[in-house]
Every structure is written in structure tokens, then in C-alpha cells.
Amino acid sequence: FDAVCPLFPRESASREVKELSGRWDFRADKSPDRKQGFERAWYKSRLAETGPVIDMPVPASYNDITQDPTLRDFIGWVWYEREVVVPSRWVADEGTRVVLRVGSAHYYSVVWVNGVKVTEHKGGHLPFEAEIGSLIRKDPTTPCRITIAVNNTLTLDTLPPGIIQHMDDPTKYPAGFFVQNIYFDFFNYAGIHRPVLLYTTPKAYVDDITVVTDFLDDTGLVKYVVSVQGAVTAAVKVTLLDKDGHSVASSNKASGLLKVVDVKLWWPYLMHENHGYLYSLEVRLMAADDGSTDEDVYTLPVGIRTVRVTSTQFLINNKPFYFHGVNKHEDSDIRGKGLDWPLIIKDFNLLKWLGANSFRTSHYPYAEEILQMCDRHGIVVIDECPGVGIKDIRSFGNASLAHHLVVMDELVRRDKNHPSVVMWSVANEPAAEMPPAELYFKTLIKHTKDLDPTRPVTYITDSNYARDKGAPYVDVICVNSYFSWYHDPGHMEVISIQLNSQFENWYGKYQKPIIQSEYGADAVPGLHSDPPVMFSEEYQKMVLQNYHDVFDQKRKQYVVGELIWNFADFMTAQGITRVVGNKKGIFSRQRQPKAAAFTLRERYWRLANETA
Ligand code: GCB
């Protein structure tokens, strides 16, 4: 299968994009073993010819779209299909590459065009694509039929891992009954979550660009490498433009170093008036002299900044950076994990209202569109892979590790050029005290550093500092703790003691900077109690305040950040500790503030003013 082009599909003078968002035909394969679609080759003709179909929006999770409880909790293959009219000039011109790209589909996908399999992909949060020009040219008069089968089953070797449990006792369960067990705390939404599109490039095209930035006094340094496909000789011209479109540096080489005088650095939100300053790197692949290939143009946003970690600090542009931000989810009513622009922009407005300067992409890579917003607004990102819930010892096996390494390849390849991404997180709360965790994390972190030597690497731990086997390999210690919630529920008086010991123990053992990567408490919106009791808005607010007192002592030493769990309430599997989902949001799922949001807002703006 084709490798994925790492470049986000953008329109240019040489490239066109056709979005396939909207209504698709859909059917869940409810046969007992879920294999009927493959056995009867549903991809060979129109889906509506092999059985009933329903309307399904793309992008969106399918779970909350209908009134059918068996679709909400469905496990197995679902089938999507739509026909698209391909512009005749794309078909007519043999020199045009036509690429079908899926932003993400959860979890395993197989794609056919006019009944011919063109690609498959494992993993729910990263893009995949296939060149389909020759297929659509075979029969230019019929519309192009795209079929995508998606399976949400999670096993011990998937990321995140899960396990299917068959219940065979006929006195308790109907025949063939099985459940999907998961080890993570969010609903396993499924379907085509990000846009599906067709885009074109010329036959010879810019396949990848890598930039690494630095600066010396007032001079910005942009090291770049352009990779080209389909050209015999590649004449490349690169031009770096400032925000006003003025050229500030250029070169005629496919790789090199651009120098920018009086550089405007990329700064985090609220740290500088130039927060989120972006240059544009225009890369031009010249047409061949003999006319055999056309010109290709691709423009990449570039933020010039550096990242470095010392034993007590996290430095951006050599200045100490303190993360005051949130953990998020891609989650909302009706659309589940489907990409939704109103939601994205609303969330950025709320982040800015809060005075948050950062978030972690808990617990999987977010849409590229979201990272582009972070670049523009100066929101700093800890980019997390879907390594959440690695709890079963079998998930530390060779097959799991091999897949985890591939996921890091795909993630770094996709996100390496975002100035907002300052650190990779390879996992969340793994069973890091188990013996195989040491080699697993040593290998995984080394692999990630080989892929990208410019960014620190971490994983998020809730293990005991004395027994955590991966901590020696991380650059920053990221700790989650829920004092007076999961431990000593109702006793806020323990927080200051336990949190102080937590920091002192970790720092004492490792002398690395520490981020409180999660803390918080559930609050059902509108539930009030004074004196505060658990699940009331007052209790949530007081828990945060007790944590903040300790952060204020320790941030003068080696604590470099605090990320609240969570930005907003989100859906989870059903269970006795979840009241229609996780309620640790400081905003409700509909993005209305709870009392804690105002507490945090006051604090974040104060912190921002101190460090500006
Ligand atoms: C955690 C997990 C997060 C959960 C949260 C909670 O430690 O990292 O995914 O949602 O706790 O609320 O239990």
C-alpha cells in the first residue's frame, strides 16, 4: 500500500482538494461473527444493493446518531459508502495524482474504490491515504464509489488495548454474548472521525518537508529538508515569508539553512505580544525543462522557537515556561469524536478566556486541524499517542511494542513541524511497575528520540516513584494524582501533605522537572453543597484550591506545570462511578462553566501576568 504523505492536504496553485464530508450510506454488520460483509463482498456493488442502509454523517462517531441501542454499543465491522463525481480534468490529465485520504477512522479500516481494495490501516487517530488515479481512469464515465469498512474491536495488541470477553454460561447470557472490556476511561467512540477527501498533486510532487528551528541573538535559523517524489531531477526553490507576505530568506537547494534577520520568535499564548507568530515556507518544485512534469507548490506554516529541559526547568526560547492548562478529549454531544469546527473554535475561545497556555492531547493524537489552531494561537501541546490503558502484562509483549513503535513513527511524521508541539507523550498511566515495563519504555522512548532528537519525551505516570520502571528514561516526570478523591475521599485535609510528599519523592529520586499532568474531582453541574461534599461544584473548586497552594510553593523550585483533569465533561462506558460520563470537567459537556472554571480563570491570568 502507499505510504501516507506526511503533509497535511492543502490547496495551492498546483493542488486541489475535494472534501467528502456529509451524508454517507451506512450499515453495521450484525451477523453473529460480523463477517458477512466480507463473505458476501459488500464492497463489490452499491451497499444499498446488498441490504438496507441508513444515513450516516461523516465525519462523526456513529454511536450517538440513531435511537438504536445496539448501534450505540456495537462491536465489529460497520460499512460506509458514498459515490463521488471526480472532476473530468483530474481524470483527463494523466499527469495528475489523485489521492484519497482519511483523516482518521476508529479503529481498523479497509478501503475500496469501485470494488478494488486500495488500502487498509490499523489505528484510530492518524491519517491514511491511497493514490487512486489509475483506478478512476479505468472507467471515467461511472462515478467513483468509495467503500470504507471500519472495525472498533480492541485487543491486547491494539492501541489503546482492550479485550473481548465471551460469556458462555447459558443460564446467564444469550447465545453468542460478548462484551468489549477496555482499560481506559472514555467511551470507545467509533466510525470515520475526521474528513475524508480527495486531493491532487502533479506527478512530480513535494512529498515531505522537515523543519527544525533555532536562533542566535536576533537571527532565526530554519534548517529544512524537502523530499520529492516522481521527479528525475528536482529543482526546488524555497522562500520563507513573514506574516505580511514579504520574503525574508530563500534558497535553491532541497535542503539547507535559512537565516532570518530580526527574527520574530514563536511564543506561547500570553508570554509575548508575538504569541503564535508564524512564517510561511513556500516550497516550489520546478517543472521539468522537457515539459514532462508540472510545477508543484506547497506552503508550510513555520514557527521559529526552541525547546530545552534542565533539571528544574522547561525552557521555550531559553525562557522558563510554566504549563498552566488543561487535559482535553475530542468529545461532544451527538458527534462523539467527530471533527466539528464550531466545537473546535468554541474550545479555543474557552481556553483563551481561561488564560490557559497549554494542553495535553489526552489520550490520543488530536486532529491536525486542532494542532494548526494551537500553532496560530500559541497554545503549547504535549502530543500524546493512544498508549492509554497498557495495564495487562500481555500488552507489554513484542507484538504490542512493534505496533507502538509504528504508531510513534506515524505520529512524529504527522506532527513534527508544529511549533506548538513541545513534547511527546508515549503513554498514559501504564502499569509501569511491572517487570517488562523497563525494556518496553526504554525501547519506545529511545525510538521516539531517534525519530525526533529536538523534543523531550515523557509518559504520564500514576505509579509509585520507587517502583516506576520507565521513569529513568523520560525527560520530564508527569504525575497524575487524585488525593481526596480516589484516595481518602472527602478528606481535603490530606492534599497538602500527600502532594508535598509526591513532589519531594519524585524530585528526590530523579532530579527532573515535574508536571502535575492530572488532578481534579467530579462535579455534577448545578449540584451545590456547603460545607462541600463530593460531586458538588464547591467540592471540586476546593480540591483545586488545595492543590494550587502546594503548586505555588513548588513551582519556585522544580514543578513546571499543572494540567487540570478535565477541560470538559466527557462520555465514558457505563459504570457505577460514572453519572452519564466523567464529570471532572470545569466546563460541562455543553461547554458551560462550573464554579471551578472561575477559580482557574483567576489563577491562570495571575500566573500569566507573573511570567509575561
Ligand atoms: C485518570 C486517567 C483519566 C481518567 C481520570 C479519572 O487517571 O488518566 O483518563 O478519566 O483519571 O477521572 O478517573
Describe this structure in words.
The chain is globular. The longest helix has 18 residues, at 398-415. It has three domains: 17-152 and 188-200, Jelly Rolls, CATH 2.60.120; 203-305, Immunoglobulins (Immunoglobulin-like); 308-611, Glycosidases (TIM Barrel, Alpha-Beta Barrel). Strands 25-26-27-28-29-30-31-32 form an eight-stranded parallel β-barrel, surrounded by five helices. Strands 3-2-4-10-7-8 form a six-stranded antiparallel beta sheet, with no helix packed on it. Strands 1-14-5-9 form a four-stranded antiparallel beta sheet, with no helix packed on it. It has eleven helices and 32 strands. The protein is an alpha+beta fold and 612 residues long. The relative contact order is 0.10. Helix content is 21%, strand content 29%. Helix 5 links the parallel strand 25 (323-327) and strand 26 (358-360). Bound molecules: (2S,3S,4S,5R)-3,4,5-trihydroxy-6-oxo-oxane-2-carboxylic acid. Residues 185, 363, 428-429, 462, 480, 518, 565, 582, 584 line the site of (2S,3S,4S,5R)-3,4,5-trihydroxy-6-oxo-oxane-2-carboxylic acid (GCB).
